[in-house]
Amino acid sequence: MGANQNMTEYPQGIKWTKQRKCVYQVLSDATEPLSAQQIYMLAGQMAQNDTYALSTIYRILATFEENGIVNSTTWMGDDTVVYELERGEHTHYAVCLDCRKRIPLQGCPFTIGHFGHRHGDDGEGELSDFTVIGHKIELYGYCDACSANHVNNTDL
Amino acid sequence: MGANQNMTEYPQGIKWTKQRKCVYQVLSDATEPLSAQQIYMLAGQMAQNDTYALSTIYRILATFEENGIVNSTTWMGDDTVVYELERGEHTHYAVCLDCRKRIPLQGCPFTIGHFGHRHGDDGEGELSDFTVIGHKIELYGYCDACSANHVNNTDL
DNA sequence: ACGCAAATGCAACTCATTCGCATTTAGAAC
DNA sequence: GTTCTAAATGCGAATGAGTTGCATTTGCGT
Questions:
Q1: DSSP, res A70
Q2: Which of B9, B15, B111, B138 is most buried per CB count within 10 Å?
Q3: For residue B53, which nucleotide's C1' is closest to its Cα?
């Protein structure tokens, strides 16, 4: 089937079926988040003989997410969910509103603390009642190529 | 129909049909972003006599967005798009992963500049080729009520 | 008041994602 | 290694947000 035969490598706690191994493999080979459809195709391609049901892929991804093996998000202005292996780090992106190209940003510009204590600073947002475990940041605008086709758009 | 009769109040450049006036009214009454479905229902409720087609609502919202009258986003972990009037300011939210409650945060913790020049700092992300016109930030975690039901989840 | 481009209503369609249920299988217990 | 069962899979049907084609209506410039 593939490269990964020794199951001792996999995160434990769930049944490691060939389908799950394959999806896991696809995700660890990936360099950016993938949609269920993409994973479906890549997995089917990797397991040359049999092809795995799309609904199975969705279920596997849901299970992986529940077990903290993968994370999911969506891109700005796109409705399909994408998945990536939880690698203990995260990346933010700048998304071109025109061609949808995504440029990964280095590092993370602010720590949770900046927001977490905000309620004390200026009044409202009662974040004292909220346990922050993560965040999501996206910049949007126009990339080099596309910005030529656009007039000034002052949004913020 | 409603309160807004004098069309001079409306942004100009597009035809102001009764449906559009109604959707506009619903959005200006709203205190938080609404989905097309919600707007559909609220509009139908406001225009007691006739009811407007859902597809029309979608088309109106698309037109409004193209004309900079509204902005759209999606909530973390939810796939439906929500719309709000462009009021020249923006709000970020903390989203509870359990009950989906959203807590608005005061102000914006960082300016575009923080990111815009990032490429110079540490290597990769060639943001010099990118014109940033906006951003999106979301915190996620568990609210007061829900955090009780959850074990520690060390994510980011 | 007239006329036409633009907007609407309706119904059919797309497409990501989910669900029910019969069949298969991982892996714990023998 | 064989047995057994809960969990996982496959398949196809269902859901639900959002879109689209087309005939009909209407805003609004003249």
A1: E
A2: B138
A3: C9
The closest CB to that of A141, out of B74, B132, B137, belongs to B132
| pLDDT classification of A53: cutoffs 50, 70, 90 | very high
Nearest CA in chain A to B89: A156
Res. B112 pLDDT band, cuts 50 70 90: very low
Cα–Cα dist B88/B124, whole Å: 32
Q: Do A79 and B79 touch (CB under 8 A)?
A: yes
Please indicate whether, in this complex, the C-beta atoms of A136 and B140 are within 8 angstroms of each other.
Answer: yes
Percent of chain B with pLDDT over 90: 40
pTM (2 decimals)? 0.81
pLDDT at residue number A109: 63
A112: region left, alpha or beta (phi > 0 left; psi from -120 to 50 alpha) = alpha
Q: Cα separations (Å) of A10 from A22, A36, A68, A77?
A: 11, 20, 13, 34
Does residue A80 register a pLDDT over 60?
A: yes
Residue from the list B107, B130, B144 with its beta carbon closest to the beta carbon of A122: B107
pLDDT of residue B12: 76
- A62 Cβ under 8 Å from any chain B Cβ: no
State both tokens at B104: 């608005």
Residue A122 forms contact with B (CB below 8 Å): yes
Residue B53 has pLDDT above 90, yes or no: yes
Establish whether the CB of B136 is closer than 7 Å to any nucleic acid atom in strand C. no
Q: Which residues pair with A23 in a beta bridge?
A: none
Q: Which backbone phi and psi does A139 adopt, to 5 degrees?
A: -100, 145
Q: Return the residue matching tokens 């947002």.
A: A125
Residues A31-48: what's their mean pLDDT? 94
Q: How far apart are CA A136 and CA A91, in angstroms?
A: 9
CA-based nearest residue to A59, from A82, A36, A79, A81: A36
Helix (H) or strand (E) holding A82: strand A81-85
pLDDT of residue B84: 95
